[in-house]
Structure formats: structure tokens, C-alpha cells
Amino acid sequence: MKKKTFLILGLDNFGFSLAGQLYGLGQEVIVVDMDEKRIAEIRDEVSEAVVADATDRDTIEELGLDKVDAAVVSMGETRIGPSVLATLHLKEMGIENIIVKAVSSEHGRIAENIGATKVVFPEHEIAVRLAKKLSVSHVFEEVDFPEGYSLIEILAPKKLQGKTLYEAQIRTNYGITVVWIRRTTEDGKVISILPAPNDKVYEGDVLFVLGLQEDIEKFKKLEV
């Protein structure tokens, strides 16, 4: 897999964590922030760490943007001005993929209007995911995919227990697909099963289910 190069402007908590994660996955990461302490903390965890004003166009251009696959703007907890200015500069420099961490809906709209290709609200997205997880105790994890699909980790509903996947007609009845089963045996051993039509679902099984969000929501309402 070809290594990608990411430019991250701003080392708030989101930018700092994202930079470390990308570098840990083998990507080239360049970070820019005015805070010398933050730069010192991350210097050994990224490809290049620069102490500079991320809104200074001349400084950013000197980094060699022709090799950047994507730029992330993660700055401005209370004032959106620096983030907006940095986004504008990146757009004018010809960066095609610009992701902006927004702190408000107004900030997000402005970022999109001046060229951001994606706007993210990390705190809001985490809160939504946590609220879903806390409100439905039998759903352990949920991953969103493009085009409205989701993958969830859920306790097997009573309606499926004792039936094979073929007998339960899961895809026909619920519009979803069981892609994995995790089961704890009587001796406490945890096993994983790549399901086939004749595999039976038992009480306590954890199902990894893929489907459209609307079908997933219906499936989550089945009694466990």
C-alpha cells in the first residue's frame, strides 16, 4: 500500500491524536503549531514537526504541498478565525482534500463554503455514538460505513436463538447480514465463527451484523 502524506495544521487534542494515529499506521505526517511545547511532545511521533503560525501562507507553502494527499485543519477552540484563514490558504494553494475540525455549525458552513471537502465535529460524533451505546445495553459497538450502512456488535436476539442462519432467514426477514459470530463455550473459551447458512445461533452469542442503518435500527429493537 502506497504511503500517504498528511499535513495537520494545529495540535489541539484532536489534531495531536490524529497525527499520532496516522504516523503509527505508517503514513507520513507533517504537523504545524505555534506551541513549542506541543511540537516537542510530538516530534518523535511524526515525520516532521514545525513550530510556526499555521495561518502564515508563506510558511505552509515552504513545506512542499505538492506531495500532500490531504490536509487537516484542527485549530480554534473558541475563535474560528485562524481555522478559516488556514482553510482558505490551503484551498488557494490547490490542496484537493481538506478536512476541517469545526467547533460550531456556523464554523462548519463557512469552512465548506471556502473549500473544505469534509467537516468533522469530533465531540458531537463521540457524544452521539456514546448515547446510542448507553441507551441500548445489548449493542456493544457500532461502526458507520458510507452509503448509509453500519456494522454493529450485538447480543443474539431471542427470535434467532436455536435456529440456523438459514432457518432464521435473516437477510430476507431483516435485510441484514451476519458476518461474524463470537461465542463463549461452557468452559469459558471464546471462539470466533465465520458463519455459514447451517450454523446455529445460541443464547449469549454476539453477532456482528452489517446492513443499511434503517434495517440495523429495526434489528436492534428485537428482544434479547
Chart the SSEs and their pairings.
Layout lengths: L4 E5 L3 H12 L3 E6 L2 H7 L5 E4 L5 H5 L8 E4 L7 H12 L5 E4 L3 H9 L4 E3 L1 H14 L3 E6 L4 E7 L9 H4 L1 H5 L1 E9 L5 E4 L12 E7 H8 L4
Parallel strand pairs: 1-2, 1-4, 2-3, 4-5, 5-6
Antiparallel strand pairs: 7-8, 8-11, 9-10, 9-11
Task: Kindly describe this structure.
The protein is of the alpha/beta class. The chain folds into two domains: 5-124, NAD(P)-binding Rossmann-like Domain (Rossmann fold, 3-Layer(aba) Sandwich), CATH 3.40.50.720; 136-220, Regulator of K+ conductance, C-terminal domain (Alpha-Beta Plaits, 2-Layer Sandwich). It has nine helices and eleven strands. The chain has helices at residues 13-24, 36-42, 57-61, 81-92, 105-113, 122-135, 165-168, 170-174, 213-220; strands spanning 5-9, 28-33, 48-51, 70-73, 98-101, 118-120, 139-144, 149-155, 176-184, 190-193, 206-212. The protein has a six-stranded parallel beta sheet with strand order 3-2-1-4-5-6, with helices on both faces. α5 links the parallel β5 (98-101) and β6. The longest helix has 14 residues, at 122-135. 28% of the residues are buried. The model has no long low-confidence stretch (mean pLDDT 86).
What keyword list fits this structure?
five-stranded antiparallel beta sheet, elongated, Alpha-Beta Plaits, 224 residues, six-stranded parallel beta sheet, 9 helices, Rossmann fold, alpha/beta, 2 domains, single chain
